[in-house]
Amino acid sequence: MKKQITIRPEDNKQNVYEDRNGRMVFKRKFYEQELYKLEIELLKLQKWVLVNNKRILIIMEGRDGAGKGGTIKALTERLNPRGFRIVALQKPTESERKDWYFKRYISELPKPGEIVLFDRSWYNRAGVEKVMGFCSQEEYKEFIYQVLNLEQMLITSGLYMFKYFLNVSRSEQKRRIERRKTDPLRMWKLSPIDSKSINLWDEYTDAFQKMFSRTHNAESPWILVDSTDKKRARINIARDLLSKIDYDGKEQSRACLLADPNIVSQYSQAIFIKNKDEKNKKQKVEIKNKKASKDKE
Fold first, then answer.
1. Residue 142 neighbours by CB under 8 Å, 6+ apart
2. Tens of pLDDT along 196-255?
3. Does some domain include residue 276?
4. Which CATH number does the domain housing residue 254 bear?
């Protein structure tokens, strides 16, 4: 058996990173070299899925501008188009709104021998629909009550399911959304919801925290991804995905499948409580400083 790579290539830190507006990001050459190795493994995974009639569902959720679409494109660019589908549903029709919420997603689930990637999923109900008031409180509660039961049934039936949530800083989200307004190749990504999401950062944060705590369990855990550097996010999502499936021909001596825990990590309630406490402390300090400034005046 060939020895598994246990040290991430970027840990060497030579000719890997470049400074971009005060942020250290992957250099393009290193990114392309690592992605190429992972693309080979992704093709092996796809072949294994096809030969063995397996079914894989990859859910990509995240804040607006977090890079969900670009990540999906990177993961599927070299795959056989006959063996995967990308599902990005439009807002529900009036008829669909009156039907069982999950119905239109159920019809898009992978068939035997297929990989399906959801660019946003049924978790719209716990995120954008809740924050923007597109669903009632009763509809939200019904979703929370049903979703883990549904996922458990799907997993028991043999479906491989992965839930990734891409997150960015507030300033980076704003920069990306503002760029969509002027870049003719990105304008199609801009929606009325995007502009509103910038001003609803805290509301979305609270909604996502509740979503994680209520829909995370051992069978279908949430994997949180720091996508401030899109290239690092894509590489580490691919590593994480490939490391969790025992497909035929896996070569961990050629491609590093050890995801960076600073980029990809499983949801932890303790982390969110800590971050919330730190945020509250920061706000108290800011209020105290403002008060002190006024007193001096």
1. 101
2. 778 899 999 999 999 999 999 999 999 999 999 999 999 999 999 999 999 999 999 999
3. no
4. 3.40.50.300
